[in-house]
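Troubleshooting log. The previous structure file for this entry was overwritten by mistake, so regenerating from the original sequence record. Sequence copied from the archived sheet and checked twice against the printout by T.R.
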Amino acid sequence: MGIQEEKRTLAAAGADFPGSHICRQLVQPGHDVVCVENLYCIKKRGIVELLDQPDFEYLRANTSVRGKEISAMVKKST
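Regenerated output below.
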C-alpha cells in the first residue's frame, strides 16, 4: 500500500450554518480541518461538538483579511 497524504482544509467562516455542516462532513472521513471564524455576528454553537475532535482546530480571526495573512496564522498555530 502507498503512503496516504494528509488532507488539511481551511474553512473560512466555518462556524456559521453552512460552514459548520461542511466542517462536520470533512472531519468524518479523516481530514484535518482548520476553522477560521471571527464570531462577531454568530455563536460558536455550530461547531461545539467538533471542538473535542482531534482532527479539528478552531481559530478566532477576522476572515476578511487577505489569504496570505490567514495562511500565516494557520502555519503559526500548528
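The chain is about 30% helix and 20% strand. Archived copy saved in two places this time.
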